[in-house]
Amino acid sequence: DVPKATEPRGDSDGPRRGSLCDRHCATINNVQGDLGDLGYHLHRPRVPPALSPPSCCQQHSDEVCESCVVKTTLTAENVVEANKLSNNYKFGFKKWKSHVTARPWEDRSEIVKELYSDLNVIRGSGGSTVTCGNILYLLLFGWWLSLLYVLVAAMMFVTIVGASYGWLCWDLAGYFLWPFGKVIQKVEVPKSHRALGTCEAGAEASGAGENSALLGGPVPCRWRPWCWADARYWQRAGAVAWLCLGYPALVLAHGLVCVTAWLLIVLIPVAKLSARTAARVLLLPPERVLVRRLRMTEVPLEGEVILCCYRAVNPYYYKYAVDGINVFAVNLLPLVLVTLVLGYVDSHNHLTSSPIKFTLALLSIMPLSYYIGMAIASISAQSNFAVGAVVNATFGSITELTFYITALIKGSREGNRCYAEIVKSALTGTLVGCVLFVPGLCMVIGGIRHQEQRFNSRSAGVSSALLFLSVGGVFAPTLFSKVYGKLVCGECHNVTQNPLGHYLCHNCHFDLMENNGTLYYSHVQPLVYTVSLLLPAAYLIGLFFTLKTHSHIYDIHISDCHMPGHHHSAVVHWSRWRALVILLLSTLCMSACADLATEHISPILTNSTISQYFIGVTVLAMVPELPEIVNGIQFALQNNLSLSIEIGNCIAVQVCMLQIPILVLFTIFYPTNFTLVFSDLHVYASMFSVVLMNYIFMDGKCDYFQGTVLVMVYFILLAVYFFAPSPSGC
User: Fold this and answer.
1) R_g over Cα of the chain
2) pLDDT grade, residue 137 (50/70/90)?
């Protein structure tokens, strides 16, 4: 959905020079790709002044053109979008692909314009209407909807006073059996004909629009209210019979079709068809509704076109948005309400079981994560840097922290150490998944469209250095306990029956509580607190380094010359106050869903044959990150792999430098079983993932093969977790 650029207009010399420079900049910068609809230009070497065109954008000077060639330029549609783009490249800020402002209608592509049409546009060339999607409509909705109209028509004929509505239902029965290539038109009845009370006047009114070169075919004479002596009486009586007998059943049927088609997304045209029929067509007087079949002609229609549909399925409806909200997030929002009602009303599991409630609660986290992300992006784009930084730092990890804290509270109340181990597995799974799976998947999908993709190796190097630091700090207490802790085993068996032979031991672990916990309380715990203070400090230093003193490593420049047609004020989807309210409500619902998920995870942990390690590193770790993964894939498809990589790196850095210290701080005020001592499997998997990621990102370019390597290593680690025995205490 890329708006087409037009050449600037001005003086006789200005347009020629400006357009040459713009084409020159576009040729240079589009070699490596763009940001799609926002015109992202990569950094290129300086062009000698003798070879560089004279001007760039609206200011025709050599300096401006050279800055276009040298710097990474982000051409935004308005100031709000420019702030959002700039925030995408800031370390520690959420990367957001979708627009936070409404795009001008004239800049939309024809595909997108068709998505938002009201199904009342007649095409010049129809083509064949026999398609797989239209046949699918016939099988799913068309046959029984047409049959229902026939039954309602028969019922209206029986009432006699509603005979005119019976003829209308008869016409609509044929229409909804196969509505493609047909049109429903609202016609105007002349006042002189409305006043007549004879059947001849009715025949004259029916024949007024009988022949049309476009529509073709005569309109048969129907029973009309004016064919009776007292037209007004029969018209009112027929309307009452229609509203009491026929209309409710048809509205219920169309409502069912509308909801079903909307949930299927690709059938949204059918949902629009049903909604428009129930809201307009069925409420019109029958003499003002005409159903005709279109024919190839150039004569325009007389009267308003209410419905004109050509196909039932449109695969591009995954781009559809309602008030800036993607249609998938809109469709998943009722799932949140169902989850909350079932979870808190059916507390004794009379209606559903615990595994179903756990699954619903986990799925409800996905749309809530989307709403939280969009609210953060909207607030940051409309605020200054300080407010945006505070909002991102406060709510950026709220999804994961809510689940972790509720799980730790439940484990502390029940005295079950398994919840703490699940939290550790989820933390490790998020770290490994964001380091291996997210960038690897983006490389594979982006590599299918682009043979080789490049990214900013310097900015990736900053995140990699912070990852090395954070992983070393997080696992420092674990390594300390391995060195100074005492190995204790639950039970040991002599395999060779020889006192000096080999022993097979089970449930071995390093005991930190020897001598009344002297080692833990005197050495390990102070180390944990020290690390928890140093890691956030390192995160703040990284922010100051990338955003203040060395912001040039990103080489980002927001262009002052907006795209053609964008000289209007920005219309934001969500204002700051609305975004703040949605952010708070989404956070509240997230807390409730996390509470339900931890409440009903116990049967899964106790009765499942799958290792609790595997459940933690997959389901609990990656499901809340699905909106971020989708954003990364969209950036990779538009050849902007830098943001795809930064999405995974920022999440991994926040896990180690913000989430884990916050959990340690929480355990100080609310004692739980959570200690910053991980199993060997978590340590080895995390360190190996960080080392491999740094090796892949070393040269600043990648392809789908390197992405495949990262994804395969991630699946190998998942297999290790799958076959690993459950942690002690579970």
Assistant:
1) 33
2) very high
What are the backbone angles phi and psi of residue 305, rounded to the nearest 5°? -90, 120
Amino acid (1-letter code) at residue 20: L
What tokens were used for 175? 């229409």
Angle at 588 between CA 587 and CA 594, to 5 degrees: 85
Nearest CA to 612 out of 409, 435, 415, 407 is that of 407
* CA-wise closest residue to 294 among 181, 394, 391: 181
Strand partners, 488: 509
Burial (0-12, 13-18, 19+ Cβ within 10 Å), 549: exposed
Token pair of 220 as six digits: 């048969």
Greater pLDDT, 720 or 204:
720
Helices and strands (DSSP H and E) totals, the chain: 31, 13
Q: Which residue has the tokens 């983006």?
A: 442
The SS3 of residue 690 is: helix
- Distance (Å, rounded) from C-alpha 170 to C-alpha 190? 24
CA distances, 270 to each of 125, 180, 259, 631 (Å): 21, 11, 10, 29
CA angle 660, 664, 667 (to 5 degrees): 140
CA–CA distance, 228 with 234 (Å, rounded to integer): 7
Whose CA is closest to 255, among 285, 277, 234? 277
Ranges 218-227, 561-570, 631-640, most confident: 631-640
N residues, the chain: 730
Higher pLDDT, 442 or 499: 442
Distance of CA 256 to the CA centre of its chain: 25
- Chain-centroid distance of CA 556 in Å reads 26
Q: Are 642 and 460 in contact (CB under 8 A)?
A: yes
- Site of tokens 């004692």: 671
Are 91 and 541 spatial neighbours (Cβ–Cβ below 8 Å)? no
Residue 557 — pLDDT band, cuts 50, 70, 90?
A: low
Nearest to 611 by CA among 330, 422, 465: 422
324-494+503-557+569-723, CATH topology level? A middle domain of Talin 1 (1.20.1420)
Q: What is the DSSP string of 576-619?
A: HHHHHHHHHHHHHHHHHHHHHHHHTSHHHHHH-SS-HHHHHHTH
Q: What angle do CA 392, 396, 398 make, to 5 degrees?
A: 135
CA quadruple 361, 442, 700, 704: dihedral, nearest 10: 140
pTM of the full structure: 0.74
Widest Cα–Cα separation across the chain: 117
- Cβ count near 513 (within 10 Å): 13
By the 8 A CB rule, do 418 and 1 touch? no
Where are the domains positioned within the chain? 111-186+235-316, 324-494+503-557+569-723
Please check whether residue 380 is in contact with residue 576, taking contact to mean a CB–CB distance below 8 angstroms.
no
Q: Position of tokens 């991980």?
A: 678
Instruction: Look up residue 567 and give its two tokens.
Output: 């000289």
When pLDDT is cut at 50, 70 and 90, the band that residue 113 belongs to is confident
Tokens of 38: 């926002």
Q: Map residue 291 onto helix, strand or coil.
A: strand
Q: Is 138 helix (H, G, I), strand (E, B) or coil?
A: helix
